[in-house]
Amino acid sequence: MNVMKLSKQVFVVLLCCLLVGFTAQADAYGTAGQSNEQQPAPAVKHSPQELQQLVAPIALYPDALVAQILAAATYPTQIVEADRWMQRHSKLKGEELAKEVDKQDWDPSVKALAQFPSVLENMDKNLSWTSSLGEAYANQPDDVTNAVQTLRSQAEKTGHLNSNEQEKVTTQGSTIIIEPANPEMVYVPAYDPWLVYGAPIIAYPGWYPVPGIFWGGVGLSFGLGFGVGFFGGFGWGWGHWGYDWHGRRAFYDHHAYVSHSHEFGHEGFHHGDSGHGSFGHANVGHSNFGHSNAFHGGSGFHGRSGTHSGAFSGFGHGGSVRGFSSRGRSSFGGGGHGGHGGGRR
């Protein structure tokens, strides 16, 4: 009888051990599965050719405008909102427009693009490209910066990038700087981004050529300039932006621009401090600065102190436009020049 009781006790102990083991294994599996689900999708690594395709439409713009576009591209949903707002308020001009823009809850970079409605329209009409550009800049700022300089060098070699009445082109070492010839009047060059650099670049899939900044020739064309004086007194205005080519990042009020966008699964990202410190948007407009080149190899700021804006808190949209950035990533698998006749969204 004692033997039978002992056998039953051993059996019960073994059964309990097995149950505990199965439970632990199931818990571990469930935790791993939950952990995997919570992990953000790995960032797409763009090749140099893909990055050149992404920056081709803006590489020949003035440095400060390149900075504004790359920063604003990390907020594609706000780009759409801003462009639609501009369409509804098309009668606003000059200082009246600047005051109303300042009231909006957009990132400073998006507000800055209100100075250039055709650029803002282009980013809205080509939203897939905009989102891909923003994601590339968020994940590969060094490579994006290199791509811009590579294309500028190619355009210069083809004779399509030179100083003129609209812009000043200078070289610092191997870095090409583009600034407005008149700091109060900014000209946005119109060109065919797929032909202007010499060797053809495959057009971004579905690209829509927005009138005013697209020109069908092989060089650059300049139309009407954009006066930025009315926007100068606001913390997001033209004089607050620049590009640090050596540090490989957009600059905003002498600090590396920090995006607080959540559109690409980031909890806010910046591109390294490099001794400059991260910059919070709530502090803008309180520093005094002059007209000298304030950082390495970049265009100097021509800002003003005593700015008015305080509404600089960007808002996230929970990755609501992630789908846009997935388009066009396999665009280097073939095809040729084309894509100019893409329809409106």
Kindly describe this structure:
With 345 residues, the chain is of the alpha+beta class. The protein has one domain. The protein contains ten helices and eleven strands. A three-stranded antiparallel beta sheet has the order 7-8-9. The longest helix is centred in the first third of the chain and has 37 residues, at 2-38. It starts with a helix and ends in a 20-residue tail after the last helix.
Strand fraction band? 5-15%
The number of helical elements comes to 10
The major sheet is characterized as: 3 strands, antiparallel
Number of separate domains: 1
Helical/strand content category? alpha+beta
Summarize the structure.
This protein has 345 residues and is of the alpha+beta class. It has helices at residues 2-38, 48-55, 63-72, 76-88, 94-102, 108-112, 117-125, 127-139, 141-157, 322-325, and strands at residues 167-172, 175-180, 185-186, 190-191, 220-221, 226-227, 241-244, 249-252, 255-256, 258-259, 269-270. The chain has one domain (48-333).
Name some characteristics of this structure.
345 residues; alpha+beta; three-stranded antiparallel β-sheet; two-stranded antiparallel ribbon; disordered C terminus
What is the topology?
Layout lengths: L1 H37 L9 H8 L7 H10 L3 H13 L5 H9 L5 H5 L4 H9 L1 H13 L1 H17 L9 E6 L2 E6 L4 E2 L3 E2 L28 E2 L4 E2 L13 E4 L4 E4 L2 E2 L1 E2 L9 E2 L51 H4 L20
Antiparallel strand pairs: 1-2, 3-6, 4-5, 7-8, 8-9, 10-11
Helix pairs in contact: 2-9, 4-7, 8-9
